[in-house]
């Protein structure tokens, strides 16, 4: 079993400490996948996002995706900014780029589910949240949104 497989397996363990460590290790792996310079730029965009400066954050992430098109986390953060700015269709497109390269990216599955939920594409949202749950079965947010979607469908 390689390191990625072990981390993904640990997400399914009963022990919450093991799950938390695996989750954190996966985020670190995603942040660092294109080297230190790319990671520094990613954090710059995150600081703008945390300051609610979505325009500047979006520009940083867009530049990162241009400079490092294989940087899945740059696409994921761009999707987050697009989601926060209400551009759900574009955010879904970025999530799909992430998932093509990293089908185990539970954050992208969840993010796509959130976009689909806001677009009232509820069956597709349920599918996305269920895919996130397959990877991270103890993530209660996904269960919550599946319930909300099903409630709106009934």
From TrEMBL:
Which InterPro entries does the entry link to? TPR-like_helical_dom_sf, TPR_rpt, Ycf3/AcsC/BcsC/TPR_MFPF
Q: Which UniProt keywords apply?
A: Repeat, TPR repeat
Concerning Pfam families, the annotation shows: TPR_1, TPR_16
Tell whether Membrane is among the UniProt keywords.
Answer: no
Q: In terms of domain of life, where is this protein from?
A: Bacteria
Identify the PROSITE patterns for this entry: TPR
Q: Where are the TPR repeats?
A: 106-139
Per its record, how is this protein called by name? TPR repeat
Q: Which organism is it from?
A: Nitrospina watsonii
What taxonomic classification does the UniProt entry list for its organism?
Answer: Bacteria, Pseudomonadati, Nitrospinota/Tectimicrobiota group, Nitrospinota, Nitrospinia
